């Protein structure tokens, strides 16, 4: 079974999946390993690894350490071509489709594709969209992308349909790391109404109640990162997992 198929199975069995995002730059590797193990034990369904910037020089070792301590899928959420490791189960092969910067739409992907092929990583084609969150995020700045306005759900729907028609496997609506506001429920509902591929929602999800709102609006997977890095507590992870799962 491929990693993508495992994710689909999680969605089908639990109604929605809970994903914990680890950024190698945000905390020591030992703390990340502990958080990953705790996340699995308390109900998380997968681990994403990556970030917009990467000052951590041992990315491959970081991924290997996380993978050796968990049995749930470990997927790279790349911020650039330097974030590729054969030690992961898969990589989100992302295109920031609402950008006007060709480098993040197709340029970096062309550079990364041969490396991904050689490593044997499973690529999961993902349409990544930045959504206005109340402040400029690292992803927005680094990619030179103008986020979709919060009140323009129809634009998000049009981009999402385009992604599905192109044959992409996932749609990722992203408010950004440390976002002041998460992706609006109305936008999630509108996208989910028109597309049939799974929908990932992340950024600014600061409580289990907010996470549940995203699932009820139509999110297939909810991602949290900052909220756990600042407050590593197994009880809180469990609360998120229980809120997200049916």
Overall description:
There is one protein chain. The protein has a single domain (3-244), classed as TIM Barrel. 44% of the residues lie in helices and 17% in strands. By secondary structure, the chain is of the alpha/beta class. Strands 1-2-3-4-5-6-7-8 form an 8-stranded parallel barrel, surrounded by 8 helices. Strand 4, helix 4 (102-119) and strand 5 form a beta-alpha-beta unit. It has helices spanning 3-14, 29-41, 59-69, 102-119, 138-143, 153-165, 185-194, 208-217, 226-229, 234-244; strands at residues 17-22, 46-49, 74-76, 90-96, 122-130, 170-174, 199-202, 221-224.
Question: Which characteristics define this entry?
Answer:
44% helix, 246 residues, alpha/beta, 17% strand, globular
Determine the CATH superfamily. FMN-linked oxidoreductases
The description of the largest β-sheet is: 8 strands, parallel, barrel
- What is the CATH topology assignment? TIM Barrel
Cα radius of gyration in angstroms: 16 Å
CATH architecture field: Alpha-Beta Barrel
Q: Write the H/E string, N to C.
A: HEHEHEEHEHHEHEHEHH
Q: β content, as a range?
A: 15-25%
Q: Would you tell me the overall average pLDDT?
A: 92
How many β strands by DSSP?
8
The shape is globular
The N- to C-terminal Cα distance equals 24 Å
Residues in helices, as a percent range: 40-55%
H/I helix tally: 10
Strand order of the largest sheet: 1-2-3-4-5-6-7-8
Classify the secondary structure makeup into a structural class. Answer: alpha/beta
What is the count of distinct domains? 1
Write down the CATH class.
Answer: Alpha Beta
